[in-house]
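Q: I'm building a small set of examples for a reading group on sequence design. Run inverse folding on the following structure and report the sequence directly after it, with nothing in between.
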């Protein structure tokens, strides 16, 4: 199939490249001319603007957005709307609030345009490993998108699924990210506790490697923790400043709205706030983990 990828940041560029490697055609647009040129070198087609991107597609046209949540998504949809026709599909593969996705789907449906929210996980490793995708939208839209989803996933029959109607994909991804907060916090606290036991002089990198094989706590996050500790276990070059990108807050607010207790997720979010005013090892490790799986920026100490 042929689709337009709007937004060629780290994840968007990698997703476009995986589609190209899978034999699909990709038209790319980004405000960074260098990003568009890079896609061309990998076999994609360039677009000078959204209208140019849409003009290169055949019906039903698929436009996949990989732009930041909020106003950038809103503006992209507003610009695309007059360019699309009934049966065309807009995909939001970013981390939008699920309520916004519901609203956008309902609005676009009046024009016959499908809106699909695809909660996407995989970070900088998705190009090689494939992406986990939680898809919300109509059955009709899913059939149009299926070839791309099967290519982007770890395998055609796993790592992705149609989880429900519009908004459900981003809802499930929101909860996924809330769980991620809790898992990361538990690892960070455990390794900080072992580091504190100075009498044993424990090698945290060695312990991470031991746990990676056969342990009940093994996971991909533990794999990435081991990578983060390879070059030194004190992480002294990092500031213990851990950002939160929004999904954890949304998860906590949803747990309050539904009266569904989520104390671990809530406390892990509070710990991220605390990290911005301390010098703890656990928060440096949290920062290092985010860099490992998502390529998120870290704050390094000056000097």
């Amino acid at each position: 199939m042929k689709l337009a990828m709007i937004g060629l940041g780290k994840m968007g560029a990698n997703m476009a490249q995986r589609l190209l490697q899978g034999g699909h055609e990709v038209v790319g647009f980004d405000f960074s001319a260098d990003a568009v040129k890079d896609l061309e070198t990998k076999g994609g087609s360039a677009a000078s603007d959204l209208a140019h991107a849409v003009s290169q597609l055949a019906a039903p046209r698929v436009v996949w957005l990989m732009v930041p949540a909020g106003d950038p998504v809103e503006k992209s949809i507003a610009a695309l709307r007059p360019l699309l026709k009934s049966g065309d599909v807009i995909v939001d593969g970013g981390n939008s609030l699920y309520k916004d996705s519901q609203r956008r789907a309902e609005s676009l449906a009046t024009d016959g345009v499908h809106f699909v929210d695809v909660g996407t996980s995989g970070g900088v490793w998705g190009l090689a490993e494939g992406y986990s995708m939680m898809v919300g939208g109509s059955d009709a839209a899913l059939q149009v998108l299926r070839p791309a989803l099967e290519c982007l996933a770890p395998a055609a029959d796993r790592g992705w699924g149609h989880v429900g109607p519009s908004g459900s994909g981003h809802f499930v991804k929101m909860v996924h990210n809330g769980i991620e907060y809790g898992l990361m916090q538990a690892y960070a606290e455990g390794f900080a506790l072992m580091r504190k036991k100075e009498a044993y002089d424990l090698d945290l990198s060695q312990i991470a490697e031991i746990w990676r094989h056969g342990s009940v706590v093994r996971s991909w996050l533990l794999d990435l923790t081991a990578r983060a500790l390879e070059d030194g276990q004190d992480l002294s070059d990092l500031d213990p400043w851990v950002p939160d990108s929004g999904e954890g807050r949304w998860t906590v607010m949803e747990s309050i709205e539904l009266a569904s207790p989520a104390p671990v997720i809530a406390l892990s979010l509070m710990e991220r706030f605390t990290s911005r005013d301390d010098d703890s090892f656990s928060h440096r490790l949290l920062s290092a983990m985010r860099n490992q799986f998502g390529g998120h920026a870290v704050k390094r100490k000056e000097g």
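The beta strands are 2-6, 25-29, 45-46, 62-65, 89-92, 114-121, 132-136, 160-164.
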